[in-house]
């Protein structure tokens, strides 16, 4: 039986209600967004791809020269989940320049069956490519810009027109030629774990794709820890004929099968 979710947080191993958890004010994780984070899906009290998420957290931290104690964090995660019970939700992990290790059990944000997206021009910070850092202000502003245009989410596009990714997910689409495409990791997109599972399960073309290719798609979807697979209904104001379409449903089925195997 699933346990009702209570928002709990662990700060350096001290567990409390999230609303009561505190860290010292003078921490550059807060002052300067200097830190790294992960969000992991919890299914019935079990974490999906915990090892992959912790590996990526280590890579992000190493890229910004931030040391943290992985063994201690793993111990604190286990204690927090034991306290939370068999919940459905997400686990947020944060390591900060001030030396804090934070783990928090949270509810899953609500996501509709379909999403409208708008492209937003974005110039990546090359030294943070592939890093899941706390410096997310630009990503959140991109989403606000997309919403101002009547969309629900942004898709970041380089100034030269190369498609990158949405602020908190990966994007896939069916090209005019009929192939399933997604931007390649080499152009600077985040090494998404949900994306990784889909690329392994499906026939996907990875590359540097022009925004015109995305805008011409007849079917598209976003993929992330919290969304899983979410169909795209509109791109830059153009409605898609299939939302969700057959390739989206194929991706949903493939990811569900992956969950069944890995959990």
Layout of helices and strands:
Blueprint: E1 8-11, E2 14-17, H1 28-31, E3 35-43, E4 46-47, H2 50-63, H3 70-84, E5 89-96, E6 101-106, E7 114-121, H4 137-148, E8 153-157, E9 170-174, E10 180-183, H5 193-201, E11 205-207, H6 211-215, E12 219-224, E13 228-235, E14 238-239, H7 246-262
Can you walk through the features of this model?
The chain has 263 residues and is of the alpha+beta class. The protein has two domains: 8-106, D-amino Acid Aminotransferase, Chain A, domain 1 (2-Layer Sandwich); 114-262, D-amino Acid Aminotransferase, Chain A, domain 2 (Alpha-Beta Barrel), CATH 3.20.10.10. 29% of the residues lie in helices and 28% in strands. The chain contains seven helices and 14 strands. Strands 7, 8, 9, 10, 11, 12, 13 and 14 form an eight-stranded mixed beta sheet that branches. β12 (219-224) and β13 (228-235) form a beta hairpin. α5 packs across α7 (246-262). The chain starts with 7 loop residues before the first strand and ends with a helix. 37% of the residues are buried.
Distance between the termini: 16 Å
Kindly identify the CATH topology of the largest domain.
D-amino Acid Aminotransferase, Chain A, domain 2
Rg for CA atoms: 19 Å
Subunit organisation of the chains: single chain
Low-confidence stretches: none
CATH first level of the largest domain: Alpha Beta
Quick one: how many beta strands?
14
Order of helices and strands: EEHEEHHEEEHEEEHEHEEEH
Shape: globular
Helix coverage percent: 25-40%
Strand content: 25-35%
Major sheet description: 8 strands, mixed
Tally of DSSP helical segments: 7
Rounded mean pLDDT score: 97
Please identify the structural class as seen in this structure: alpha+beta
Count of structural domains: 2
CATH architecture field of the largest domain: Alpha-Beta Barrel
| CATH homologous superfamily heading of the largest domain | D-amino Acid Aminotransferase, subunit A, domain 2
